[in-house]
Amino acid sequence: MRACPSPTGSVCGFAPRVRLGECHRIHLIAWRDVRNVRHITRAEVGDNDVSSIDEVDTSKKTSKVDVAKTATSHKPKHNRRGDNAARDKFTDTLRETYSGGRVSKRDFKSHLGKLQDPNAALDDVTVILVGTKKAGNVGAIARACGSFECEDLRLVSPRCDPHTRASLSAAKGAQHIVHGAGVYDTLEDALLDVDCAIAFHVWTDGLEPENVSDVDSLIKLYPKGLSIDEQSQTEYPLRYPVTEDPVELLFDGARRERIRGGGMVAEGAAGSHAETDTSSSKVNESENDENDTAHGWRVRTHVTPPSLRANRGVGKLALVFGREVEGLTDQEVNACDAMCSIPTGRLIESLSVSHAAVIILSQYFQSRQ
Question: Is the pTM value of this prediction over 0.90?
């Protein structure tokens, strides 16, 4: 049996009678509190008489049960049921709402939509993230959504894997929102069933949507999504039940024409738009390849397949946030009904996407209290 050195450098006389592999915490408690064991340090016997350290009084043996009782007595208080009433109440709330601890990808659906009577404050709001590059931002915004009772998160062409440890760790109790987030290829697809979309973008000059200068005015103009009665009176484009793809072919600018040009276009026009977009996209891809070679930009290698796009509710108010560096493109902003930039000081031009989402969600949540 090896002897266990105590934290002060002395030799623990109790350790030789404890089997190797048992919890070292027992050693740390035993060398302090078990009275039947004497701890003789080198300072007490002197450096020249090291042999006397082995002469330890072991006339009274200590059982493992006594050591376990000693270890239990030193546990911190308020960690057992009945020690702290406030903590017990908080634990009961987590169990009732299924919102505590890590949520696995298998059972995330059982955690969604648990808030009833009254319903979630922002149940008619959806948060849309376009081209997010850092997984931590997905988790941080998911946590903000959970804090302000918004469970509908949609990701458009994410440049990261939203289910990595960085994302789930940043979510902190809102992992079910990350697992339940819908993934879309285009912003047009993500806005297919929403009533109103607001783009949060710093540069608003020369763009078509209504420009709202501050958040308070934005909430007055666009307070919420459609009610249940209004949703039943409004028709939205359909999706195929299995693939969740839109029934009508989408093209760049489809929602812009729908909200400003008087309805959806015919399939023939959509096909012509699609052909034009395909040819132009090939040219853009070749240009991008040349730029990648010239400037050394990293080509995107991770592609998240579309998922969970259907049955997310219709007639919602969409809050659209762009990429960490570039923000939203002009075409993406023009697909929204309004645009807003959060006022900032003179030192930094814009906010990070996670901070911007927290501010907007907080303001909408406070307006409904």
Answer: no
